[in-house]
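General statements about sequence and structure are easier to judge against a single worked case. For one protein, we set the task of working out the structure tokens from the amino acid sequence alone. The sequence in question and its structure tokens are set out directly beneath this paragraph.
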Amino acid sequence: MDRRNFAFDRVNFILLAAGMVVVIIGFLLMSGPGSTETVFNPDVFSARRIKVAPLVSLVGFLFMVYAIVRRPIDKHNNDKDLTNQPTPHSNDLD
């Protein structure tokens, strides 16, 4: 199997997984007990749930976008591979 045909390399998948973990952490930070009709819980409006958790989730989503957009680095040859390209022959130019 030719690895050059894959859109992602191993680093892309690792970055995607790390971004997903950060997003999950952000959602876990948002969770907690809620208020009911009879009891008001002031923790609903805490800084952790209103400011920190959405920011952590946003960073995770941006990290995942970067992992998708990131182009894998060709380790074998950064320039065009001229050895595998066909050469023009004199009879092809007629």
Observations:
- The two ends are 38 Å apart (CA to CA).
- Residues 1-33+43-73 form one domain.
- The CA atoms of residues 30 and 49 lie 5 Å apart.
